[in-house]
Amino acid sequence: MRDLLGGAERQRLSLAEYDADFYATVESTDGPILKTERIQTFREPGSPSWEAYADGRWEDALRIAAEPNPELVAFFKHLDQLGSGLRRLRIVELPLTPYLTWELHFLRYRAQAGEQIRVLDARSVSDWEAAAGTVPELMVVGRRAVYEVLYDSSGTPTGAEKSVEPMVVQACRTEVLGLLEKAEPFESFFVREVDGTRPAGPQL
Predict the structure, then answer these.
(1) ω into residue 95 within 30 of 0, thus cis?
(2) For 2-193, which CATH superfamily applies?
(3) Domain boundaries in the chain?
(4) pLDDT per residue as tens digits for the range 93-105
(5) Could you tell me how far CA 9 lies from the centroid of its own chain?
(6) % the chain with pLDDT above 90
(7) What are 53-68's pLDDT values in tens digits?
(8) 3-state class of 146 per DSSP?
(9) C-alpha angle with apex 72: 51 to 184, nearest 5 degrees?
């Protein structure tokens, strides 16, 4: 996918511009929204659950994550009404990083709210990545646009680069759907690898 993106005409967006542009594009989407996550440690300032986790307050992080989120449920219902939905591919390396231990607990509540999530062991893409480069952090919005989400060295989001070239969007869409087919349903992975665990080592 990186070779496709590297040769495409792309628009650079700040974090605020990306947020606004993405939600505007969602309203006219013509298919599922596909999200890839490959980085093993992110920073998520502004997320109360993440901030509790980062402070070492694990029980608080879980309690906050479990709080009802009517806005999130409404968002997923809205996506269903648009005929899209959000399908997340989470690529994981084992053993899990402390961040991933938190994130997978957090994602369980998003799955319960309506997000469609599948998990793929990074070993399953080792040959693919050796040939094509590391799987990028993408949001593919139907056939309308593909965003490569950008992060600094600490894993903090800084913005995105957007392409609307039909061949690029479709090629990325096909690649992500192929990886999703290989991935495991979230709940079975969570029960086997995550349930009952706590972050090992420092949180940040």
Answers:
(1) yes
(2) Endonuclease Chain A (3.30.870.10)
(3) 2-193
(4) 999 999 999 999 9
(5) 23
(6) 90
(7) 999 999 999 999 999 9
(8) strand
(9) 85
